Amino acid sequence: MERIGIIGSGRAGSALGAALASAGYPVTGVAARSQASLERAARLLPDVPVLSPSEVTTRADVVLVAVPDDALAEVAAGLPLTRDQYVVHLSGAHGVSVFAGTAGIPVALHPPMTFVGTAVDLTDVVFTATAPAEAQPMVERLVKALGAGVQWISEEQRALYHAGLVHGANHLTTLLVQAFAVLREAGVADPAATLGPLLTATLDNTLRSGHDALTGPIARGDVDTVAAHLAVLRGRVASTYAELAGATVELAVEAGRLDRETAARFETALDFEDVLGYRTGEAPQ
To answer: Which fold is adopted by the domain 4-154?
Structure first.
Protein backbone atom coordinates (compact mmCIF):
# COMPACT_ATOMS: atom_id res chain seq x y z
CA MET A 1 0.00 0.00 0.00
CA GLU A 2 1.08 3.55 -0.72
CA ARG A 3 2.24 5.74 2.15
CA ILE A 4 -0.20 8.60 2.81
CA GLY A 5 0.82 12.11 3.89
CA ILE A 6 -1.75 14.73 4.82
CA ILE A 7 -1.23 18.46 4.39
CA GLY A 8 -3.85 20.14 6.55
CA SER A 9 -5.89 18.51 9.30
CA GLY A 10 -9.26 19.99 8.40
CA ARG A 11 -12.49 18.09 8.83
CA ALA A 12 -12.30 16.27 5.49
CA GLY A 13 -8.57 15.57 5.44
CA SER A 14 -8.40 14.23 8.98
CA ALA A 15 -11.50 12.06 8.52
CA LEU A 16 -10.23 10.60 5.25
CA GLY A 17 -6.81 10.03 6.81
CA ALA A 18 -8.42 8.18 9.72
CA ALA A 19 -10.46 6.07 7.32
CA LEU A 20 -7.38 5.19 5.28
CA ALA A 21 -5.44 4.30 8.42
CA SER A 22 -8.30 2.02 9.51
CA ALA A 23 -8.20 0.41 6.06
CA GLY A 24 -4.51 -0.45 6.55
CA TYR A 25 -2.84 2.40 4.69
CA PRO A 26 0.26 3.75 6.46
CA VAL A 27 -0.34 7.43 7.24
CA THR A 28 3.20 8.69 7.74
CA GLY A 29 2.65 12.31 8.67
CA VAL A 30 0.18 15.18 8.98
CA ALA A 31 0.76 18.92 8.79
CA ALA A 32 -1.44 20.99 11.10
CA ARG A 33 -1.13 24.62 12.10
CA SER A 34 -4.14 25.93 14.00
CA GLN A 35 -5.03 24.75 17.49
CA ALA A 36 -8.27 23.25 16.17
CA SER A 37 -6.35 21.30 13.51
CA LEU A 38 -3.81 20.07 16.04
CA GLU A 39 -6.59 18.88 18.34
CA ARG A 40 -8.38 17.20 15.44
CA ALA A 41 -5.19 15.42 14.37
CA ALA A 42 -4.59 14.23 17.93
CA ARG A 43 -8.13 12.89 18.12
CA LEU A 44 -8.46 11.22 14.70
CA LEU A 45 -4.81 10.44 13.88
CA PRO A 46 -3.29 9.83 17.33
CA ASP A 47 -0.41 7.67 16.09
CA VAL A 48 0.55 9.95 13.19
CA PRO A 49 3.40 12.41 13.73
CA VAL A 50 2.70 16.10 13.19
CA LEU A 51 5.36 17.37 10.80
CA SER A 52 6.13 20.30 8.55
CA PRO A 53 4.57 20.18 5.06
CA SER A 54 7.97 19.40 3.53
CA GLU A 55 8.58 16.52 5.93
CA VAL A 56 5.11 15.12 5.29
CA THR A 57 5.76 15.24 1.55
CA THR A 58 9.12 13.50 1.63
CA ARG A 59 7.71 10.59 3.66
CA ALA A 60 4.69 9.90 1.42
CA ASP A 61 3.81 8.30 -1.89
CA VAL A 62 0.39 9.99 -1.93
CA VAL A 63 0.28 13.58 -0.68
CA LEU A 64 -3.24 14.60 0.28
CA VAL A 65 -3.52 18.39 0.15
CA ALA A 66 -6.55 18.96 2.37
CA VAL A 67 -6.66 22.77 2.50
CA PRO A 68 -9.33 25.30 1.43
CA ASP A 69 -9.96 25.48 -2.30
CA ASP A 70 -8.43 28.93 -2.73
CA ALA A 71 -5.16 27.78 -1.13
CA LEU A 72 -4.68 24.56 -3.12
CA ALA A 73 -2.42 25.92 -5.86
CA GLU A 74 -0.22 27.96 -3.54
CA VAL A 75 0.22 25.19 -0.98
CA ALA A 76 0.97 22.52 -3.59
CA ALA A 77 3.46 24.77 -5.34
CA GLY A 78 5.48 24.99 -2.12
CA LEU A 79 5.79 21.24 -1.59
CA PRO A 80 8.94 19.29 -2.62
CA LEU A 81 6.98 16.87 -4.82
CA THR A 82 8.59 14.48 -7.28
CA ARG A 83 7.31 12.85 -10.43
CA ASP A 84 6.93 9.55 -8.59
CA GLN A 85 4.39 10.97 -6.13
CA TYR A 86 0.66 11.54 -6.39
CA VAL A 87 -0.70 14.88 -5.22
CA VAL A 88 -4.39 14.68 -4.36
CA HIS A 89 -7.02 17.20 -3.34
CA LEU A 90 -10.59 16.72 -2.09
CA SER A 91 -12.26 19.71 -3.74
CA GLY A 92 -15.48 19.14 -5.64
CA ALA A 93 -15.21 22.28 -7.76
CA HIS A 94 -11.57 21.92 -8.89
CA GLY A 95 -10.05 19.42 -11.27
CA VAL A 96 -6.39 18.63 -11.75
CA SER A 97 -5.48 21.94 -13.42
CA VAL A 98 -5.19 23.55 -9.98
CA PHE A 99 -1.99 21.53 -9.58
CA ALA A 100 -0.50 22.71 -12.87
CA GLY A 101 3.24 23.27 -12.53
CA THR A 102 3.75 20.85 -9.66
CA ALA A 103 5.92 17.78 -10.20
CA GLY A 104 3.51 15.26 -8.71
CA ILE A 105 0.87 13.27 -10.59
CA PRO A 106 -2.33 15.28 -10.03
CA VAL A 107 -5.58 13.77 -8.75
CA ALA A 108 -8.92 15.37 -7.89
CA LEU A 109 -10.80 13.03 -5.57
CA HIS A 110 -14.01 14.38 -4.08
CA PRO A 111 -16.03 12.51 -1.44
CA PRO A 112 -19.65 13.77 -1.56
CA MET A 113 -20.10 13.55 2.17
CA THR A 114 -20.54 15.93 5.11
CA PHE A 115 -17.60 16.07 7.51
CA VAL A 116 -18.04 17.48 11.01
CA GLY A 117 -14.67 16.77 12.62
CA THR A 118 -15.31 13.19 13.70
CA ALA A 119 -14.56 9.80 12.16
CA VAL A 120 -16.78 9.02 9.18
CA ASP A 121 -17.81 5.71 7.64
CA LEU A 122 -17.15 6.09 3.91
CA THR A 123 -18.56 2.69 2.97
CA ASP A 124 -20.76 3.00 -0.14
CA VAL A 125 -19.82 6.66 -0.70
CA VAL A 126 -19.22 7.24 -4.41
CA PHE A 127 -16.10 9.41 -4.82
CA THR A 128 -15.88 11.56 -7.95
CA ALA A 129 -12.42 11.56 -9.52
CA THR A 130 -10.51 13.33 -12.26
CA ALA A 131 -6.98 12.13 -12.97
CA PRO A 132 -4.59 11.09 -15.75
CA ALA A 133 -4.63 7.43 -16.75
CA GLU A 134 -1.45 6.65 -14.82
CA ALA A 135 -3.11 7.62 -11.53
CA GLN A 136 -6.36 5.74 -11.99
CA PRO A 137 -5.21 2.33 -10.67
CA MET A 138 -4.01 3.97 -7.44
CA VAL A 139 -7.33 5.77 -7.01
CA GLU A 140 -9.27 2.56 -7.62
CA ARG A 141 -7.20 0.72 -4.99
CA LEU A 142 -7.57 3.46 -2.42
CA VAL A 143 -11.32 3.83 -2.85
CA LYS A 144 -11.89 0.07 -2.86
CA ALA A 145 -9.98 -0.24 0.43
CA LEU A 146 -12.46 2.18 1.98
CA GLY A 147 -15.40 0.09 0.80
CA ALA A 148 -16.45 2.99 -1.41
CA GLY A 149 -17.01 3.47 -5.12
CA VAL A 150 -15.62 5.87 -7.69
CA GLN A 151 -16.96 7.60 -10.77
CA TRP A 152 -14.84 9.49 -13.29
CA ILE A 153 -15.66 12.86 -14.81
CA SER A 154 -13.72 15.21 -17.05
CA GLU A 155 -11.89 18.33 -15.98
CA GLU A 156 -14.41 20.46 -17.85
CA GLN A 157 -17.38 19.08 -15.91
CA ARG A 158 -16.07 19.61 -12.36
CA ALA A 159 -17.85 22.95 -11.80
CA LEU A 160 -21.14 21.57 -13.14
CA TYR A 161 -20.79 18.48 -10.97
CA HIS A 162 -20.14 20.55 -7.86
CA ALA A 163 -23.04 22.89 -8.64
CA GLY A 164 -25.37 19.90 -8.72
CA LEU A 165 -24.14 18.70 -5.33
CA VAL A 166 -24.46 22.12 -3.71
CA HIS A 167 -27.92 22.66 -5.16
CA GLY A 168 -29.12 19.28 -3.92
CA ALA A 169 -27.44 19.21 -0.51
CA ASN A 170 -26.49 22.67 0.80
CA HIS A 171 -29.65 24.30 -0.49
CA LEU A 172 -31.68 21.54 1.13
CA THR A 173 -30.47 22.80 4.51
CA THR A 174 -31.57 26.33 3.60
CA LEU A 175 -34.97 25.05 2.52
CA LEU A 176 -35.50 23.07 5.72
CA VAL A 177 -34.43 25.91 7.99
CA GLN A 178 -37.00 28.12 6.23
CA ALA A 179 -39.67 25.42 6.59
CA PHE A 180 -38.86 25.02 10.30
CA ALA A 181 -39.40 28.76 10.81
CA VAL A 182 -42.79 28.68 9.07
CA LEU A 183 -43.94 25.67 11.08
CA ARG A 184 -42.84 27.24 14.37
CA GLU A 185 -44.83 30.37 13.50
CA ALA A 186 -47.83 28.12 12.82
CA GLY A 187 -47.54 26.77 16.36
CA VAL A 188 -45.59 23.56 15.74
CA ALA A 189 -43.29 23.05 18.72
CA ASP A 190 -40.95 20.53 17.09
CA PRO A 191 -40.74 21.09 13.31
CA ALA A 192 -37.99 18.50 12.86
CA ALA A 193 -40.09 15.77 14.44
CA THR A 194 -43.09 16.79 12.33
CA LEU A 195 -41.19 16.89 9.05
CA GLY A 196 -38.81 14.01 9.77
CA PRO A 197 -40.92 11.02 8.63
CA LEU A 198 -42.18 12.90 5.57
CA LEU A 199 -38.66 14.00 4.62
CA THR A 200 -37.23 10.52 5.09
CA ALA A 201 -39.92 8.96 2.91
CA THR A 202 -39.64 11.67 0.26
CA LEU A 203 -35.85 11.43 0.07
CA ASP A 204 -35.92 7.65 -0.12
CA ASN A 205 -38.62 7.65 -2.80
CA THR A 206 -36.90 10.35 -4.85
CA LEU A 207 -33.52 8.60 -4.74
CA ARG A 208 -35.22 5.46 -6.04
CA SER A 209 -37.81 6.89 -8.41
CA GLY A 210 -36.85 10.45 -9.38
CA HIS A 211 -39.79 12.59 -10.48
CA ASP A 212 -42.23 9.71 -9.92
CA ALA A 213 -41.89 10.43 -6.19
CA LEU A 214 -43.51 13.86 -6.59
CA THR A 215 -46.63 14.37 -4.47
CA GLY A 216 -48.41 17.41 -3.08
CA PRO A 217 -50.66 20.17 -4.43
CA ILE A 218 -48.83 20.76 -7.70
CA ALA A 219 -48.84 17.08 -8.66
CA ARG A 220 -52.57 17.05 -7.82
CA GLY A 221 -53.28 20.25 -9.75
CA ASP A 222 -54.47 22.16 -6.66
CA VAL A 223 -53.90 25.71 -7.93
CA ASP A 224 -56.01 27.39 -5.24
CA THR A 225 -54.00 25.68 -2.50
CA VAL A 226 -50.73 27.00 -3.89
CA ALA A 227 -52.20 30.50 -4.23
CA ALA A 228 -53.30 30.35 -0.59
CA HIS A 229 -49.80 29.31 0.44
CA LEU A 230 -48.29 32.30 -1.34
CA ALA A 231 -50.76 34.62 0.38
CA VAL A 232 -49.84 33.48 3.90
CA LEU A 233 -46.11 33.31 3.12
CA ARG A 234 -45.88 36.93 2.00
CA GLY A 235 -43.17 38.64 4.03
CA ARG A 236 -41.76 35.25 5.01
CA VAL A 237 -40.46 32.84 2.37
CA ALA A 238 -42.90 33.51 -0.48
CA SER A 239 -40.17 34.15 -3.05
CA THR A 240 -38.37 30.88 -2.34
CA TYR A 241 -41.67 28.98 -2.36
CA ALA A 242 -42.73 30.56 -5.65
CA GLU A 243 -39.44 29.87 -7.44
CA LEU A 244 -39.43 26.22 -6.33
CA ALA A 245 -43.13 25.84 -7.11
CA GLY A 246 -42.50 27.15 -10.63
CA ALA A 247 -39.70 24.62 -11.12
CA THR A 248 -41.99 21.89 -9.75
CA VAL A 249 -44.70 22.81 -12.25
CA GLU A 250 -42.17 22.45 -15.09
CA LEU A 251 -41.05 19.09 -13.71
CA ALA A 252 -44.64 17.85 -13.42
CA VAL A 253 -45.40 18.88 -17.01
CA GLU A 254 -42.26 17.21 -18.37
CA ALA A 255 -43.13 14.04 -16.44
CA GLY A 256 -46.66 13.98 -17.84
CA ARG A 257 -48.17 14.53 -14.39
CA LEU A 258 -49.73 17.91 -15.19
CA ASP A 259 -51.61 19.13 -18.27
CA ARG A 260 -50.70 22.41 -19.97
CA GLU A 261 -53.96 24.14 -19.03
CA THR A 262 -53.44 23.51 -15.31
CA ALA A 263 -49.79 24.47 -15.64
CA ALA A 264 -50.83 27.82 -17.12
CA ARG A 265 -53.14 28.42 -14.13
CA PHE A 266 -50.25 27.68 -11.79
CA GLU A 267 -48.04 30.14 -13.68
CA THR A 268 -50.67 32.84 -13.27
CA ALA A 269 -50.98 32.14 -9.55
CA LEU A 270 -47.21 32.17 -9.09
CA ASP A 271 -46.86 35.55 -10.81
CA PHE A 272 -49.17 37.52 -8.53
CA GLU A 273 -47.17 40.69 -7.99
CA ASP A 274 -49.37 41.75 -5.07
CA VAL A 275 -48.28 38.59 -3.24
CA LEU A 276 -44.58 38.46 -4.03
CA GLY A 277 -43.81 42.10 -4.68
CA TYR A 278 -42.17 41.07 -7.98
CA ARG A 279 -42.77 38.51 -10.69
CA THR A 280 -41.17 35.08 -10.44
CA GLY A 281 -38.03 34.78 -12.52
CA GLU A 282 -37.11 38.39 -11.74
CA ALA A 283 -34.69 39.54 -9.06
CA PRO A 284 -36.38 41.30 -6.14
CA GLN A 285 -35.63 45.02 -5.92
So the answer is: Rossmann fold (3.40.50)
